[in-house]
Structures are given as C-alpha cells and as structure tokens.
Amino acid sequence: MYTRILIGLLIAALLLAAPAALAQDDDKPTIAFLRYRSTGTEDITKPGIWDILQARELISPTERELLDENLDLNGERINVFWLDAASDVTNVNTMVEKALDRGADILLTFSTPVTQITANITKDMDDPPAMFFAIVSAPYSAGIADSPCIKMPHVTGTHMPIPYEQYVALSQVQMPDVQSIGTIVDPAQTQSVYGVSQITEFAEALGLTVEVASIASAADLPQATASLADKGVDMLMIGAGYTESRGIPAVLSVAKDYDLPVFGVSPRMIHHGAVVGAGFDDFYGEGVNVGRMIAAYIDGTLDISRTAISSRVNIGVAVNLDTAEEFGITVADSIMDSAVMVIEGGELSVLSQPPSLPEMSLEERMADDAAHLAELECTEERIAEEQATLGTARD
User: Fold this and answer.
1) What pTM does this model have?
2) Are 96 and 117 within 8 A, CB to CB?
3) What are the φ/ψ torsions at residue 116 (nearest 5 degrees)?
4) Could you tell me which residues are beta bridge partners of residue 278?
5) Domain range annotation of the chain
C-alpha cells in the first residue's frame, strides 16, 4: 500500500512539473532580453522591436501588452523572458548564465557592456544561441566585432554611431570664442574611453584645447569637474560613458559655481540637467532594424553569419531651458531652431512626431524587411574589402 501511495505521489508531482518542462522543450523560439538597466533610450527602442514582431504576426496584440509591461511571455509563437543587471556590471555574467540555463534560443542584448560580456561568454560554445544587440555605441573598440562583417558568426545587431563630430561642433555654435573644453573619462568603460578619444580628436581638429579628468566612480565626479574648471575650460562636453552621463547632476552641482555650460552626447541627457544634449536619436529605428533581424531569423530566412552589423547616421538636438536659465546661459538660436525636445518650466515638449511603422500589408512588410536585410548581406566581396581595410589599418 505504501509503495502504491508513493508512486501515486511521484506521478502527481511529475504531472504538476510537466508544464514548466514543456515550456523549455517546446518548438517555440525563446528570446532572452538582457539589459544593463532600464533606460529612456531602451523604452524608445523596444516598441520598434515589438512593432515589427507584431506586424509579422509573431506576437498578438494581447501578447504585446505583456511585453509593453516588461512581463515574461509564453506566447503562441514565441517566448520572451527578461533579465536585468541592475546597473552592476558584475551581475552581467550571472545574468547571461541564467539565460543559457533557461535554454534561450535568442539572446537580445542592450548596451555595450552587456553585449561585450555576452559575446565573450558565448564565443567558444559549440552551438551558441543566436545573438542580436541594440543600443551599442562602440562594438568595434569593445571587441564585439572587427567590422560589420568580420565578427563572430552567431552575432549581429545594430550599431548606434554617435555623431561626435557634429556634437563637438556645437561648442563653437554655442560659444564662438571657445578655446578649451573639458571632458571626463571612466577608464573602466570602453564606451567612455572611446567617447573621450572622439571628443578630443574632433575638438583638436577645430583648434580647441581638450582637458580630460579621470574618474573611478560616480563619487569622483564633483572633484573631476572642479579640476577641469580650475584648468580654465570654457565648457564641459560629456561623452557616452554610463557613470558620467548618469552623473550629470553631480557635475552640474559644481559647474554652476563656475558658470560652465554642460553639454551631453545624447538628447536625453537634458533629463539629467545638461543644457544641451545632442547625439544619435533614432532609437525607434534601431528597434525596427533589430526586430527585422529577429523576425527573419525566426522565419528561417536570415543567416546571422552573413548578416552585417547595421549602422545608420543620425543626430538629434535637445535643450534644457531651465538649466540654461539657472546658469544664466542664452542658448544659441540655431541650436534652438534644430531642437527636437525642449524642457522649460519643468515641462518636456517633444517637437517631433512619435515614430511608428508605415501602414502596409503583411506581404508588403515582409518584402520591405527582406529588401532592408539584403543590404546587410556579407558577400565575399564585402568581406574581402573589410579584411583589406582592417589589414591596412593594422599596418
């Protein structure tokens, strides 16, 4: 009798566990969404991904509502689950291992550090999951790839090239007599080091002197700002490093005492108090493009190893008039005329239409997506050209 009861309990336990097991073993592709932290740029990028997947009928309107709320999805055609490093790079390895343990077929990574670590973890796997990345400003200096087609065969995505040349040029638009600019670098962050190198290169090409202060953590930002002010810089231009871009309020707390304008290399940095934010601004388009890649991969029409990293040039300018007034700064008319966002009186005004997909049938959508992806094909000729360029650069 005891044996029969034990067997019965064992069978019941197995039946209760079956749905979870089936969720891992079913034929639906599972996407693991891996991010460093929740950001405003991510909130603009994700709708582009979901719009494409919904237009391609990979998710339903009801399932879309779950994804818009950042909830896990066990859908009719795909599964999605979310993992977050909580702004701590030391958590990324564990986050990636969790995604692999849960049997993710597709790793969707946001940000340079998450993409860099995920690529390094998966590069030596015999059968790695497909990996797509977005909101990555420095894939080549970070070692994620050497060029759009010279990369790990299981990896592709969208490169967000920050228009540093146009960004730095705004210093002379705002302040025609500018002689020296200051910037801040976190040597531990690839995108920070790359950003400062770009700011320095383009500023010096304009005949400007560049002063750089190094930090190890956000706690160093006030002292770094004071050191730059003491060196007599005319303004501060912050790059794309996470520590310094998120720490703009700490920078401003000191810069105000010196009447130093603070510019940030993203329109959304005005939310942190930068007088002017200018940089890549088509994050929705980033989402659309990575969504196209994922949809085509799920449909079996995309060869990741032959799909180049996508890259598009774009710049948007935003102004925080509240900070400008607090600092006694008058923003140049030409900067105001080009602004896509303005903060004034504590209110944000968006001066451009919200992005969305153009209306078209499923057949037209698939044809349009296919045409876009065809432009990213890594042909033998393109690969040879990129190899030759890399060889010349090394020489």
Assistant:
1) 0.81
2) yes
3) -60, -50
4) 317
5) 29-161+283-313+359-394, 164-280+315-350
Domain 29-161+283-313+359-394 has CATH 3.40.50.300: no
For residue 14, the surrounding DSSP H or E stretch is helix 2-25
What tokens appear for 152 in the block? 């790990």
First to last CA, the chain: 81
User: Could you name the CATH architecture of 164-280+315-350?
Assistant: 3-Layer(aba) Sandwich (3.40)
Question: How do the pLDDT tens digits run along the chain, 395 residues long?
Answer: 434 444 444 334 333 333 333 334 468 999 999 998 888 788 889 999 999 999 999 999 999 999 999 999 999 999 999 999 998 889 999 999 999 999 999 999 998 899 999 999 999 999 999 999 999 988 998 899 999 999 999 999 999 888 999 999 999 999 999 999 999 999 998 889 999 999 999 999 999 999 999 999 999 999 999 999 999 999 999 998 889 988 999 999 999 999 999 999 999 899 999 999 999 889 999 999 999 999 999 999 999 999 999 998 889 999 999 999 999 999 999 999 999 999 999 999 988 778 899 999 999 999 999 999 999 999 999 999 999 999 887 76
